[in-house]
């Protein structure tokens, strides 16, 4: 039985006994259920976008403009959705996108996602802004595929340390994110006055990094240990104490760590020359995430970059930005033989199909798996992955595609053309 039919059958059989899915199978219900489970600050961080959130809506509108044009009577019973990326054959063209502060959704955070990734064979891209150190996630995953997403700090030594650690814990590629050299204007977070990093959340890679920690030994970002003057600050101090215990850091060191992170988090002056420097730091394949223009794709390939990820950060950075799906065909053409991956706005297996048809070699899933995490931890992430892959399999079969090679530009049509 095919993947899609197997998943369908399991859910229907359970339904005979009155059991409904613990994780809704459609995105709208999934998001609503996660909203009810998460804290207001946590949900705002995950769900929110930049400005008026027009880019988020544009991402979805782009998917809706493309329609699938099936072929029939192809005699298909099973589909092959495997794909080879950088020498590794993967069971599907799906990866789990790097998302920071996963503790906003569930206490097990990245570790739960790592377990689901290992169970399904879907690669997990570790985030620089993780809630669990990359080494801990790698241990959970054993030989399962993982990549590392890099934010380039203003401290080059920390950046080099992150890359070395990623190599040491078995990451198979480095994903340099380009669209977050500054934090976008995010009203949902701003209206709550909520930046999770100030509470010590989402900085586990830094708190566990030997170079970053060595800097703390030479700094004192907290000149006074006097008690906080307000209940809100007392809660923040409590959060820092709890987080510090996980990394053997006292309150003073945690305050210093937060201050240092905020001061060095990202490089607004990141340039193409830095991409060339990264090429010298590692032998791992390098992908650039956040490429939306053909000229940037050509420049990247010319500098030895191994792959690209078309993304607008899920609409979280620039309000009114081009929809990622609309940018995909031009980047694919400009990239030549270099593999182009895609994220932003993906909500279903049918969405994955459309992105593949427009030239993506693989697709990264974001918010949906975070909502699954919020609802049921590792099991919830696994449910979301299996639902997306089941729908992809059924969509391929119903559209007459026996393999990913059949999912091409002829399979979709734009309503605007």
From TrEMBL:
Required cofactor(s): FMN
CDD domains assigned to the protein according to its UniProt record, in alphabetical order: LMO_FMN
A Pfam match: FMN_dh
Binding positions (FMN): 98-100, 127, 149, 177, 289, 311, 343-347, 366-367
Keywords of this entry: Flavoprotein, FMN, Monooxygenase, Oxidoreductase
Location of the active site: 313
GO MF term set: FMN binding; monooxygenase activity
Domain FMN hydroxy acid dehydrogenase: 19-417
SUPFAM superfamilies from the UniProt entry: FMN-linked oxidoreductases (SSF51395)
Residues bound to glyoxylate: 45, 151, 186, 313, 316
Glycoprotein keyword on record: no
Family, per entry: Belongs to the FMN-dependent alpha-hydroxy acid dehydrogenase family.
Protein known as: Lactate 2-monooxygenase
């Amino acid at each position: 039985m095919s993947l899609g039919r197997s998943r369908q059958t399991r859910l229907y059989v359970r339904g005979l006994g009155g059991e409904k899915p613990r994780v809704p199978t459609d995105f709208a219900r999934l998001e609503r259920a996660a909203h009810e489970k998460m804290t207001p600050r946590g949900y705002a961080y995950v769900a929110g976008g930049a400005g008026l959130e027009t880019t988020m809506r544009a991402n979805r509108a782009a998917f809706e403009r493309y329609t699938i044009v099936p072929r029939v009577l192809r005699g298909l019973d099973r589909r092959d959705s495997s794909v080879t990326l950088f020498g590794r054959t993967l069971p599907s063209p799906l990866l789990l996108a790097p998302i920071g502060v996963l503790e906003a959704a569930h206490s097990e955070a990245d570790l739960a996602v790592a377990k689901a990734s290992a169970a399904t064979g879907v690669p997990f891209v570790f985030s620089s802004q993780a809630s669990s150190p990359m080494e801990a996630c790698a241990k959970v995953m054993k030989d399962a595929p993982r990549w590392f997403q890099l934010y380039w700090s203003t401290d080059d030594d920390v950046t080099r340390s992150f890359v070395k650690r990623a190599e040491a814990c078995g990451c198979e590629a480095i994903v340099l994110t380009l669209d977050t050299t500054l934090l976008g204007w995010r009203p949902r977070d701003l209206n709550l006055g909520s930046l999770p990093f100030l509470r010590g959340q989402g900085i586990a890679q830094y708190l566990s990094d030997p170079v970053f920690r060595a800097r703390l030994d030479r700094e004192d970002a907290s000149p006074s240990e006097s008690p906080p003057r307000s209940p809100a600050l007392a809660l923040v101090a409590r959060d820092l104490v709890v987080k510090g215990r996980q990394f053997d850091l006292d309150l003073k060191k945690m305050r210093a760590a937060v201050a240092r992170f905020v001061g060095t988090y990202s490089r607004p002056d990141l340039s193409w020359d830095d991409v060339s420097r990264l090429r010298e730091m590692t032998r791992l394949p390098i992908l650039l995430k956040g490429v939306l223009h053909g000229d940037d794709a050509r420049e990247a390939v010319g500098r030895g970059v191994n792959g690209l990820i078309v993304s607008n950060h899920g609409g979280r950075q620039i309000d009114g930005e081009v929809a990622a799906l609309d940018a995909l065909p031009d980047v694919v053409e400009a990239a030549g033989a270099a593999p182009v991956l895609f994220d932003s706005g993906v909500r279903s297996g049918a969405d994955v199909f459309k992105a593949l048809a427009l030239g993506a070699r693989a697709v990264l899933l974001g918010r949906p798996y975070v909502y699954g995490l919020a609802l049921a931890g590792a099991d919830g992430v696994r449910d979301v992955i299996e639902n997306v892959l089941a729908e992809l399999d059924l969509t391929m079969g119903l559209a007459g595609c026996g393999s990913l090679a059949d999912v091409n530009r002829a399979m979709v049509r734009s309503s605007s053309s």
